[in-house]
Write a structure and sequence with these properties.
Blueprint: H1 56-61, E1 69-72, H2 79-94, E2 100-102, H3 109-123, E3 127-130, H4 138-146, E4 150-154, E5 166-172, H5 174-188, E6 193-199, H6 204-220, E7 224-226, E8 230-231, H7 236-249, E9 253-258, H8 263-274, E10 279-283, H9 287-294, E11 300-302, H10 306-321, E12 329-332, E13 336-337, H11 342-360
Parallel strand pairs: 1-2, 1-3, 3-4, 4-5, 5-12, 6-7, 6-8, 6-9, 9-10, 10-11
Antiparallel strand pairs: 11-13
């Protein structure tokens, strides 16, 4: 398998992560491409079995340590991103691999690709999870595949054939969880009032969630006025100021839906600034977000299956490397987390924290 990649120069992309991931302001340098990731024991909800990928003789002869796999991501310092990373690391280790992580601490996409390029050569990578930041990643996925490296992705739905070289994806449906959030907020506010929508950035995943939210609200609660989405951005004080301005400009505001992982802090801060209580739903079960739900400052967060998506990515690479086949489309559920079911998500976070404690030691 050819191991050397020649990368095109990439213009720095300071755009938002997909729903549930918000860039951090940290500018610390990343661990080098020779990062060897370690992870805590975990049980994945995905059903793919490495032993089922091939016959008993082949499975017995296959040694995962001889077939290195890796994960390319950015913003490793962000708690939401860490959930994704831990899902991959933990499951890969369970399957017998020593997974490699190529991820800068900050939102530096070119650095992530540089780390991946060096790591593929150094570690002789045969399977990669590549996060899809935007369409510019397509050329890299194709190049990896052309060099004989299996590539899968998580957290983004991809129509088959639109990204040459991509073997499979695992993600949830942004439109579906946007609609679920609309029904929940509509019920909580009694079907009247104004509701705001904010996005970390305007990107396909967040746009789909926002559009699904607005459409479902118009169907289920037609008397609710849904404001046009605005970008809250990725600087927390700025985001809170923008949400505060929305509340102040709309005296009848009753709810808010944020499609990004910092949204709970944004809308909790805006409520504190204005002294106005609203029903807010945002993204992701990071510890700070769960705490805001537990404290009643946010009604709910959408539990994008961040951990499960990337655990499944590890399983799919294992299956492919053993000569098996995987489904291209792998759609997972994204339930709402309220005080009723919050404990199970705190349990997942314990696994994430254990994984990163090992990674950093």
């Amino acid at each position: 398998m050819k191991r050397t990649l020649t990368f095109l120069l990439v213009t720095l992309m300071l755009v938002g992560l997909i729903a549930g991931c918000t860039p951090d302001t940290a500018d610390t340098t990343d661990t080098s491409a020779d990062d060897t990731s370690t992870a805590a024991d975990d049980t994945s909800s995905a059903d793919t079995s490495s032993d089922d990928a091939s016959g008993d003789d082949t499975a017995a002869a296959y040694d995962p340590l001889e077939h290195p796999i890796g994960f390319t991501m950015a913003l490793k310092s962000h708690p939401v991103v860490q959930i994704m990373i831990a899902g991959f690391l933990n499951r890969a280790e369970e399957l017998g691999y020593e997974p490699k992580l190529y991820a800068p601490d900050d939102w530096d996409i070119p650095k992530a690709y540089d780390l991946m390029e060096a790591g593929i050569v150094q570690h002789k990578i045969e399977g990669m999870v590549v996060y899809i930041f935007d369409d510019s990643v397509n050329q890299y996925i194709k190049k990896l595949s052309d060099d004989g490296i299996y590539v899968v992705t998580g957290h983004t739905k991809v129509d088959e054939g639109t990204i040459p070289g991509l073997s499979a994806w695992a993600a949830c449906d942004a439109d579906a969880y946007g609609r679920a959030a609309a029904r929940a907020i509509g019920e909580q506010i009694g079907g009247v009032g104004t509701v705001a929508v904010t996005e970390g950035s305007f990107n396909p995943t967040e746009d789909a969630a926002a559009a699904g939210f607005a459409d479902e609200m118009s169907i289920a609660y037609p008397d609710v006025v849904v404001l046009d989405p605005i970008e809250e951005g990725f600087d927390t004080p700025t985001a809170i100021d923008r949400a505060t301005a929305i509340i102040q400009a709309n005296p009848d505001i009753a709810g808010a839906f944020s499609t990004t992982g910092a949204g709970p802090s944004t809308w909790a801060g805006a409520q504190e600034n204005t002294g106005k209580q609203i029903c807010a739903i945002a993204m992701d079960y990071s510890r700070v977000n769960l705490d805001l739900v537990a404290e009643g400052k946010i009604y709910a967060v959408v539990a994008q299956p961040l951990y499960a998506e990337f655990a499944l990515c590890a399983e799919m690479l294992d299956t492919l490397l053993r000569g098996g086949e995987v489904e291209y489309n792998n759609l997972l559920e994204a339930p709402l987390v309220t005080t009723d079911n919050i404990d199970e998500y705190y349990t997942v976070l314990e696994k994430v924290e254990e994984a990163f404690e090992k990674l950093n030691n």
